[in-house]
From TrEMBL:
One of the GO BP terms on file: RNA splicing
Main location: mitochondrion
Gene that produces this protein: cocoon
Pfam family, one: RRM_1
Domain RRM: 107-185, 192-263
Keyword Oxidoreductase included in the entry's annotation: no
Database matches in SUPFAM superfamilies: RNA-binding domain, RBD
The entry's keywords: DNA-binding, Mitochondrion, mRNA processing, mRNA splicing, Nucleus, Repeat, Repressor, RNA-binding, Transcription, Transcription regulation
UniProt-annotated location(s): Mitochondrion; Nucleus
Name recorded for this polypeptide: TAR DNA-binding protein 43
Gene3D superfamilies, A to Z: 3.30.70.330
Source organism (scientific name): Drosophila melanogaster
Lineage, uppermost ranks: Eukaryota, Metazoa, Ecdysozoa, Arthropoda, Hexapoda
Molecular functions per Gene Ontology: double-stranded DNA binding; mRNA binding; RNA binding
Length: 318
């Protein structure tokens, strides 16, 4: 059996693809290893130019009838549209990653409830058990030089920072609170929640958690039941929603819409759902008077509309 040495790009390590008995290489065999490829090229040893391999009706033919495929190293040809699309996706992904990294930077965390005997060295040594500590500072009184009972710490890794925020800390025998300073506009470190719209029933909570975890630690995923085509994802870091909102997100092949989940928006969405339910209920139970009662004078009934709950029918006594 003859094998053809093929790689995706020139210079990559090739793999061997089996040729047919007539010496041709099936395009389906090539695409099984290199999806969306449409042909092969190779570099001529003498001219140093790139040459294409002849293709006809789903078969690729060797460059020479005498020597066959030879010892050439072949590389794939892809349609320009797909190649450009792949490059655009790579550029968009890179730009998106850079924007995310620019937002998700480390900042000073305030440490409250420290013992007055805790030193900056003690503070640094404690938090170095989590990761690289860039800064460890104890706030002191300017006159006495004594500790004020709180300090600041900054880490070199965003992941470490979020891990520290999610834990309880006992430093020198005292339970301390580590939080984001109110000066960053995050108040009491409330988690950040986003609304995820255009969901399909195939997208489960684990899928949402796995996808959004690359932006920050996910502490909750809520999918309403019965299914309503949207969900909520809650991050530990309240700053993450600013990063994910406005970006393009594709989960399991579905382009979902991500927006902030403030209380007003949540109430509006719930109200809309309730309204739709009431409308459906109303459509199911509408009464058509003509379909239920056909009144004839001979029946000796008269109708009065003063009853607040509907029509009242009284027998006319002779």
């Amino acid at each position: 059996m003859v094998f053809v040495h093929v790689s995706e790009k020139e210079g990559d390590e090739p793999i061997e693809l089996p040729a047919e008995e007539d010496g041709t290489l099936l395009l389906s065999t090539l695409q099984a290893q290199f999806p969306e490829s449409s042909g092969l090229q190779y570099r001529n040893v003498d001219t140093k130019a790139v040459r294409g391999v002849r293709s006809n009706e789903g078969r690729l033919y060797s460059p020479s009838e005498e020597t066959g495929w030879g010892e050439y190293h072949y590389f794939c040809v892809f349609p320009k549209k797909n190649k450009r699309q792949s490059e655009d996706n790579l550029e968009n992904s890179t730009a998106k990653t850079k924007r995310t990294e620019a937002h998700l930077r480390c900042f000073d965390l305030i440490v409250l409830g420290l013992s007055y005997n805790t030193t900056e060295q003690d503070l640094r040594e404690y938090f170095e058990t989590y990761g690289d500590v860039v800064k460890a500072e104890i706030k002191k009184d300017t006159r006495s030089g004594h500790s004020k009972g709180f300090g600041f710490v900054r880490f070199g890794s965003y992941d470490v920072q979020m891990h520290v925020l999610s834990k309880r800390h006992s430093i020198d025998g005292r339970w301390c609170e580590v939080k984001v300073p109110a000066s960053r506009g995050m108040g009491n470190q409330e988690p950040g929640k986003v609304f995820v719209g255009r969901c399909t029933e195939d997208i489960e909570a684990d899928d949402l958690r796995e996808y959004f975890s690359k932006f920050g630690e996910v502490i909750d995923v809520f999918i309403p039941k019965p299914f309503r085509a949207f969900s909520f994802v809650t991050f530990l870091d309240p700053y993450v929603p600013r990063v994910v909102c406005g970006e393009k997100h594709i989960i399991k092949g579905v382009s979902v819409h991500v927006s902030t989940a403030d209380k007003k928006n949540v109430q509006n969405k719930n109200q809309l759902f309730q309204t739709n339910n009431y409308n459906n209920l109303d459509n199911n139970f509408k009464m058509q008077p003509a379909n239920n009662f056909r009144m004839h004078p001979a029946n000796n009934f008269s109708m009065h509309s003063f009853n607040p709950h509907g029509y009242q029918m009284n027998r006319v006594m002779n």
